[in-house]
Amino acid sequence: MKSIELFAGAGGLGIGTFQAGFHPVRVVEWDDYCVETIRENQRRGVESVAAWPVVHGDVRDASFSEFEGKVALVSGGPPCQPFSLGGRHGAFRDSRDMWPEAVRAVRESKPKAFIFENVKGLTREAFGTYLGYIQLQLQYPSIAKRSDEDWTDHLNRLERHHTSSKHGPEYRLVMRLRNAADYGVPQRRERVFFVGFRSDLGIEWNFPDETHSLDALVWDQVVSGEYWERNNVPRADRKVSQRLEARGRVLERLGGVPEGTAKRAWKTVREALRDLPDPENQVAASKKLLNHRFQPGARSYPGHTGSPLDEPAKTLKAGVHGVPGGENMLLRPDGSVRYFTVRESAELQTFPRDYRFHGSWSETMRQLGNAVPVQLASVVATDVAAHLRAQ
Questions:
Q1: Whether residue 236 is found in the same domain as residue 137
Q2: Is 170 in the same domain as 248?
Q3: CA-angle at 208, arms to 377 and 38, nearest 5°
Q4: Which of 161, 199, 211, 257 is deepest in the core (most CB within 10 A)?
Q5: Domain annotation covers residue 193
């Protein structure tokens, strides 16, 4: 199935949709380093991006009319800085707000479906009205903003159409906030997904159920001890926070993980990185794996304490605030910390092992911190693809 990928970044969402069976006819990205990352992997013959027709430029200069009715999917992650909890929260006042361009791509190409994702910050109360505006635009993309309208006037017109139209929305939209850890990603990373199907297709869809849970991990660590056994962890290194210990005792009294909770345990940092060599042995690490070099200088301070080895990683950050990399550190059982290598961060974002990132450590961490986990993207896109094939 053919697709269009917008705001491709380093390729997280696009690789996930490729794994689901979508093949892009256009990939748009303006950032020099991200484009070079994709092209370097194309030169190296990495299958997931090898055939991507990359347009290196501003999406505002791109036209999608030539693909009208010819693509199954439009996907992308409009730049999140206007809504990020770590950013300036400019939303519609921010020149980096690319939601209007995402809607335009849908309007011009008329795909069977779309998948857009963004940061949790978009759901903040302060952005409530604008979030509603985004949803209405995605449901009625043909009702474009006029040159003499500001966004609030356009919102009013969309609301009138929504409440009075006899024809219903052009796209049936589902919006959900999802935690990547609940789908087997070794990282607690919350993203908002917007999934829509063209109304004339008559597709009924709901977001895929969670496959993993914190409670299952707590049970394996605190109650049964199975986690430590399967990962060959010595007793001296079996560290569990007081919060998880308390939850484990509650589960023990209940007799197990509550009904309806996913029975597979959240994947931890230890499990994600267990077959990678120690990056502090720089000769062994750099020769065996791409982007696996030790980065010195990590330190812990309030708000930046690192990710415990036996839990999913905290949300990887783009590193534009505070020290480069921010929270992107490993917290060892002995209390010491070190930075994750680029390779380790890519594993936590579930990029393919043969995928190489272009640029310095801080630059590549920025690319990774802005990415959607490949596995989470693949879960969503695979379910969308299955419904499109069945219709």
A1: no
A2: no
A3: 5
A4: 257
A5: yes
Mean pLDDT by 10 residues, the chain (391 residues): 97 98 98 97 96 96 96 91 45 65 98 96 89 96 94 94 88 97 97 97 97 98 97 94 96 95 97 93 73 90 89 85 65 92 96 95 91 97 98 84
From 80, 330, 348, 372, the catalytic residue:
80
Which residue range is the domain that position 384 belongs to? 2-206+372-390
Q: Is 80 a catalytic site residue?
A: yes
Token duo for residue 64: 């999608």
Confidence (pLDDT) at 91: 46
Phi, psi angles (nearest 5°) of residue 151: -65, -30
The pLDDT score that the predictor gives to residue 37 is 98
Q: Tell me, what's the pLDDT at 343? A: 95
Same domain, residue pair 19 and 135: yes
**CATH classification of the domain holding 55:** 3.40.50.150
Residue 289 inside a domain? The answer is no
Strand order through the sheet with 54-56? 54-56, 23-29, 2-6, 73-76, 113-119, 190-198, 171-179
Cα separations in angstroms, 260 against 108, 178, 223, 265: 42, 17, 19, 14
Cβ neighbour number for residue 242 with a 10 Å cutoff: 7
Tokens representing residue 213 in the block: 């849970």
pLDDT attached to residue 127: 86
Number of domains in the chain: 2
Judgement on whether residues 186 and 227 belong to the same structural domain of the protein: no
Q: Is 264 left (phi over 0), alpha (psi -120 to 50) or beta?
A: beta
Sign of the torsion angle spanned by Cα atoms 367, 370, 375, 379: negative
Separation CA 23–CA 290 (nearest Å): 26
